[in-house]
Design a protein that fits this description.
The protein is of the alpha+beta class. 52% of the residues lie in helices and 13% in strands. The chain has a 3-stranded antiparallel β-sheet. The chain is globular.
Length: 108
């Protein structure tokens, strides 16, 4: 994130959590460490390719931590980094706003 030139501070935020599933991934990781397949079950509309892409981008931006366990078969777990944890209040506010303004019922 720091490598780019921004014209507005909001660009930093939208660059970090923009994308169809990034904020949703961060929301689910607020509730604890998850494996790839767990995230896939929690976000069934996300393709494996899209989920992988967003996870890589979130890791690259320092918002999540990816832990690879050298086991057979290999196990990979995702959790929020310190920077990712700093987004929790914002994600909760976004959720509260959405609950107040949504038209359809959302499964959470």
């Amino acid at each position: 994130m720091a490598e780019q030139k921004y014209w507005c501070a909001i660009e930093v935020l939208t660059g970090a959590i923009g994308g169809k599933y990034k904020a949703v991934i961060l929301y689910h990781l607020m509730h604890g460490t998850k494996r790839f397949n767990e995230l896939g079950r929690l976000i069934p509309e996300a393709s494996q390719r899209m989920l992988t892409q967003h996870l890589r981008e979130l890791e690259h931006d320092g918002l999540l931590h990816r832990e690879v366990y050298r086991e057979v078969p290999p196990r990979v777990e995702y959790s929020l980094s310190e920077l990712g944890h700093a987004l929790q209040p914002l994600l909760v506010q976004m959720q509260d706003w959405a609950k107040q303004h949504m038209v359809k019922e959302v499964v959470s």
